[in-house]
């Protein structure tokens, strides 16, 4: 795959990861709903609708870092586009 196609593919992936798209995936919505408020540094009695909760979850998720100081974009870029290993090896290492 050429460098230009990789950049376009990655840009498409990142754009599809934005809140407005993630909000439509049931698994992400359910997960956002089930995470304790304390994980997001919110008061225990904090309540919001599901759309706002998903926004809070996405904002929290994109700020997370691995032990190697990689964010979610770095991790996904490695997982999707690193040609030095098989996809199986990359998935195993990413977990």
> Any idea what the shape is?
elongated
Largest sheet: none
Taking the alpha carbons of the first and last residues, their distance comes to 25 Å
What is the count of β-strands?
A: 0
Order of helices and strands: HHHHHH
Report the uncertain regions. none
Helix count equals 6
Average per-residue pLDDT, rounded, comes to 79
Instruction: Please indicate the count of domains.
Output: 2
Strand content: under 5%
Q: Over all CA atoms, what is the radius of gyration?
A: 16 Å
**Helical residue percent?**
55-70%
- Secondary structure class reads mainly alpha
Oligomeric status:
single chain
What does this protein look like?
- The chain is mostly helical and 95 residues long.
- The protein folds into two domains: 1-63, no CATH class; 68-95, no CATH class.
- 62% of the residues lie in helices and 0% in strands.
- The protein is built from six helices and no strands.
- The protein has helices at residues 3-16, 19-22, 26-34, 50-63, 72-81, 87-94.
- The radius of gyration is 16 Å and the shape is elongated.
- The mean pLDDT is 79.
């Amino acid at each position: 795959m050429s460098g230009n196609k990789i950049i376009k593919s990655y840009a498409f992936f990142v754009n599809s990861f934005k809140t407005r798209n993630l909000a439509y995936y049931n698994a992400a919505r359910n997960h956002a709903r089930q995470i304790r408020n304390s994980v997001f540094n919110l008061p225990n009695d904090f309540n919001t609708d599901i759309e706002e909760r998903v926004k809070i979850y996405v904002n929290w998720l994109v700020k997370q870092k691995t032990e190697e100081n990689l964010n979610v974009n770095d991790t996904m870029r490695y997982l999707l586009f690193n040609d030095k290993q098989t996809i199986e090896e990359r998935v195993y290492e990413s977990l």
